[in-house]
C-alpha cells in the first residue's frame, strides 16, 4: 500500500480560531489535488494559492506597514463615528491620511 501525502491546508482564518472541532481539521485530499479543499467534516473552501515570500522581502514589509497604518486609521474613523471628535483625534487622522497617501505615491500630501 503506497502512502499518499495529504494537502493539509486549513480553512481561511484557521489561526484566529480555537483549534477544536470539525473546522480545525485540515484538507483530507491528496497534496496535488486541483479545485476546492474538503475537510474531514465535509466543509469545502476554495483553493487559493498564496505565494511564499521571504521574511526579508521589502514588498512584504511595505504591505505589512501599510495594513497596520490602515487599521489604525480605521480605528480613528470608528472613534469619530462613535462621537469622539476631538482636535487631537482629527490631527491624528489627518497625519495618517497624509502618510498613507505618501506611501501610495503622492508625497505632496505630506507637505500639508
Task: Give a quick set of tags describing it.
single chain; 112 residues; mainly alpha; 2 domains; two-stranded antiparallel ribbon; 2 helices; 37% helix
What is the radius of gyration? 21 Å
Number of domains: 2
- Between the first and last Cα atoms, what is the distance in angstroms? 70 Å
Number of strands: 2
Structural class: mainly alpha
Name the poorly predicted regions.
Answer: none
What summary fits the major beta sheet?
Answer: 2 strands, antiparallel
Q: Name the average pLDDT.
A: 79
- Overall outline: elongated
Describe the structure.
The protein has 112 residues and is mainly alpha-helical. The protein has helices at residues 58-81, 87-103; strands at 37-38, 44-45. The chain is elongated. The termini are far apart.
Q: What's the topology here?
A:
Blueprint lengths: L36 E2 L5 E2 L12 H24 L5 H17 L9
Antiparallel strand pairs: 1-2
Q: What's the quick description here?
A:
By secondary structure, the chain is mainly α.
Amino acid at each position: 500500500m503506497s502512502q499518499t501525502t495529504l494537502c493539509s491546508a486549513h480553512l481561511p482564518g484557521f489561526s484566529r480560531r480555537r483549534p477544536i472541532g470539525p473546522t480545525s481539521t485540515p484538507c483530507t485530499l491528496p497534496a496535488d489535488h486541483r479545485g476546492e479543499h474538503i475537510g474531514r467534516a465535509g466543509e469545502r473552501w476554495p483553493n487559493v494559492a498564496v505565494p511564499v515570500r521571504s521574511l526579508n522581502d521589502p514588498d512584504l514589509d511595505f504591505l505589512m506597514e501599510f495594513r497596520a497604518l490602515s487599521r489604525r486609521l480605521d480605528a480613528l474613523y470608528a472613534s469619530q463615528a462613535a462621537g469622539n471628535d476631538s482636535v487631537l483625534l482629527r490631527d491624528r487622522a489627518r497625519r495618517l491620511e497624509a502618510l498613507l497617501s505618501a506611501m501610495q505615491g503622492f508625497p505632496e500630501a505630506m507637505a500639508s
